[in-house]
Amino acid sequence: MLSILWIGCTQSEQTEVPDSVREAFETHQDSTAIQALVTDLLESNDKTEEAWGAYFVTREIVRKGVNFEALTYLERAEILFRSTNNSEGIKRILLLKAHAYWSLGAGEEILAISEETMRLREGNLRGWATAAGNYTTYLLDYGRYEEVLTYSDSVLAICRRVDGGINPSEAYAVRAEALQYLNRDSVAVDTLITLALELIDETIPDVDKKNIYFRALNLDALDQKALARCIRFAHGKEFWSLEAKSRAQLTDYALLDETLETALNAEVTANKRALAAVDEGQSKFLAFELARGRNEIARYQWEAKLRKTALSVTALLFIVVLIGIILTYRSRMAAARAKLNLQEAELALENYKNTIRPHFLFNQLNNVSAFLSQELIGQAQDYLSDLGQFLRSLLEEQDNQVIELGAIKKQLHAYTTLQQKGSYGNVAVHITIPKELLKVCIPTGLLQPLVENSFKYAGHEGSTSPSIHVEAHSSAGVLTLKVEDSGYGDYAITGGTGHGLRLIKDRMAFNKSKSKAPKSWTVITSFSKEKGTVILTMPLAE
Question: What are phi and psi of 482, to 5 degrees?
Answer without folding.
Answer: -130, 130
